[in-house]
Design a protein that fits this description.
Layout lengths: L3 E4 L19 H8 L3 E4 L1 H4 L9 E4 L3 H5 L4 E4 L6 H17 L4 E3 L11 E3 L7 E3 L3 H8 L3 E3 L4 H9 L3
Parallel strand pairs: 1-2, 1-5, 5-8
Antiparallel strand pairs: 3-4, 6-7
Helix pairs in contact: 4-5
This protein binds iron/sulfur cluster (SF4).
Length: 162
């Protein structure tokens, strides 16, 4: 059975920076969870950050730019948490290799998990096009990353035995 990497906060794990979760009630997610398809993971806590924690945003680019050392991740309190974000992304890659995972469903807009948009590094609640650090690492390694708003597309792909 094809396994899926999923952001732990989408399954209700309390791992977000604000000490909360973002449980997604979707029939397909419930079905896949019951089938045991999910490998749940939070790259930020796995990378060594605590919950709750100050929010982080990527400054000067997106996850791809962080990997290319053109951008960095800083918290609202000014701390450089780039090493923790990179460590978490590397652990996500280890997990997908261990479980031969080809697909991930990751939380939208996160500096780790975002796939289409992220916050722009100003902490002024502005989104910009780009992906998070973990998404960048996974995509670089051929993993298909969907957000929680693209579950039907993920399902379509799963049925197609991609
Ligand atoms: Fe959720 Fe990803 Fe943020 Fe962890 S890093 S809380 S899994 S969005």
């Amino acid at each position: 059975m094809e396994k899926i990497l999923i952001s732990a906060c989408l399954l209700g794990d309390i791992v977000r920076y604000d000490g909360r979760q973002k449980k997604m009630d979707h029939v397909l997610l419930q079905c896949w969870e019951a089938q045991g398809r999910f490998v749940r993971f939070c790259p930020e806590t796995a990378g060594g950050l605590k919950t709750p924690r100050p929010p982080g945003e990527i400054v000067n680019g997106d996850g791809k730019d962080v990997l290319a050392h053109r951008a960095w991740v800083r918290t609202s309190t000014g701390e450089d948490v780039t090493p923790q974000f990179i460590r978490g992304a590397a652990m996500a890659l280890d997990l997908v290799k261990t479980h031969a995972i080809k697909m991930a469903i990751l939380k939208a807009n996160s500096p780790s998990c975002g796939s289409d948009f992220i916050y722009d590094g100003t902490f002024e609640n502005r989104l910009t096009a780009g992906m998070g650090v973990t998404t960048a690492v996974l995509r670089k390694n051929g993993i298909l990353v969907f957000s929680e708003y693209e579950i039907e597309a993920a399902s379509f792909l799963l049925k197609s035995n991609f």
